């Protein structure tokens, strides 16, 4: 596959004369975003403005080491370089088939003027959709083996912004989002989204998280509107261990005049390395069904017994369903021994099937029917055992033609004291991605490290959880209707999410009368467009799909896109997204607990062309609480000049395909 479209190498490496410590300004290509680098008595600072408005006031940069003290002040600038870059590239899958990567870059070399003469490089990039910077500890200096105890990066906002985030947590991203003002916030996981009083939207996150600890944010109480980097610790309390040369992840600040601008930004991917897989042709986005929801609602079990879900016969019926209804894959959980000792050390060996699951026969059947079997490795957090067995486990799947695996890390990490989001686990998750790539295996990681764009480099890293997914509706107080109207502007900015939409029996009273899904059926369909995942689940039991005409939408909706346009967005209230695949457009629109009307001007369609709109929307009497399954399916011909008025029920939505009419 030819993946490079063109690269314009503009005059690079302009060495700048380093005079007195005047501010160094770095403008984005359009000039709208300006990063201001300065030195305050030997301490580096950066500030950011948008269209002349200060967003981030001069903020600290630097690192503190265990034995070698601070590398953050008493520094001189030794050299400054400037570069320009403009390239367009094609991802293997994604929300857009071509991505422009255009930025201006400022590289600042800092050095201690006296012993121990350590050096620190700062790299800043200004894009039209935000700014980013990273630390580089260069080679060939006194500092070789190092231990970082804190990263001093701060984000000193100019105003008391509105924010949407989940609290900082070193092991889980499975929380509901809160809307708070900056001065009410204690801590946050990233990405965190902010809105300034001037209506500018900002997302703080990180890109290319490689061999570093995950970043959380802590509010500095003594300083207004200021967040500080708080890295996830090792068991001994330190944050990052390494050898020079080393570089931190990018600290990213995406900026847009609307929430939709954040969704359309590709800055996180642009800050990652190009694809490392020579021929990624085997990587195939797909929808999947699975032996999964049955366990969560209590119809089936993972472990052996009367209600065991992963039997040969049951899996074959899921394979038949997938083959007949346009679904690419079938996930099977509970196929291997160990579920009786869930969470215990050494519970799973990842290769021994339960006696009622004929793995080779099931794999053969899937191959014959053209369906991808999706394997499952639940580690229960037992990482040492998984690492020991990884090669054998992936080899088994590869031999059987199984090309996708869902992994899981439910529970605390062994050895105890490690966190899911610490450097040790960041290394582990990457080792698994690289091993999977060697075996031609795509990954869906649950209880993961958050996405930071590494799927550009490793496009077999398809999707991951790292979100409070639909499963919470099966066994907790659930996710309120508002949840999915916040996710596109928070968690999804980091990358794809395995939210697992598509529950049709929204109350599942037969199994759990006290639990339910807090949305209408039309809302569930709309999530296939609103939420991006190149492996996208149709999560319900197949018996709930068989006679329901609404499944026609899931059968046709793609999981990778050529173009994405956010039509309307109010964080926490309403989302309307249009995505194109080839010549067809798909539209998803959802609301929170309020009934609303969404006006959809079809300006994105091709001029002069007619389209057949197939609309799946809330029936007039639909309501997530009292009448969730009431759905109307209709068709009409439309063109670019039309505008559709979509009434959305409380907790409701609308999903639509727009197919060019051929006469
Ligand atoms: C938690 C995962 O999120 C879920 O999808 C899976 O079924 C269970 N762990 C068991 O692995
Ligand atoms: Ca709301």
Structure explained in plain terms:
It contains 12 helices and 39 strands. A hairpin with a 6-residue loop joins strand 20 and strand 21. The chain starts with a strand and ends with a strand. The strands form 6 sheets. Strands 1, 2, 9, 10, 11, 12, 15, 16, 18, 19, 23 and 24 form a 12-stranded antiparallel β-sheet that branches. It has an 8-stranded antiparallel β-sheet with strand order 3-4-5-6-14-21-20-17, with no helix packed on it. With 663 residues, the protein is an alpha+beta fold. 15% of the residues lie in helices and 36% in strands. The protein binds 1-deoxynojirimycin (NOJ) and calcium ion (CA). 1-deoxynojirimycin (NOJ) is lined by residues 292, 333, 378, 408, 410, 446, 465, 471.
- CATH fold type of the largest domain: Beta-galactosidase, Chain A, domain 5
Largest sheet: 12 strands, antiparallel
**Distance N to C terminus:** 34 Å
Mean pLDDT: 96
Please name the CATH architecture of the largest domain.
Answer: Distorted Sandwich
What global shape is seen?
A: globular
Q: Identify the CATH class of the largest domain.
A: Mainly Beta
Q: What would you report as the Rg, rounded to the nearest angstrom?
A: 25 Å
How much of the sequence lies in strands comes to 35-45%
Q: What percentage of residues falls in helices of 4 or more residues?
A: 10-25%
Enumerate the spans where pLDDT stays under 50 for 5 or more consecutive residues: 1-14, 16-20
Structural class by secondary-structure content: alpha+beta
| Ligand inventory | 1-deoxynojirimycin, calcium ion
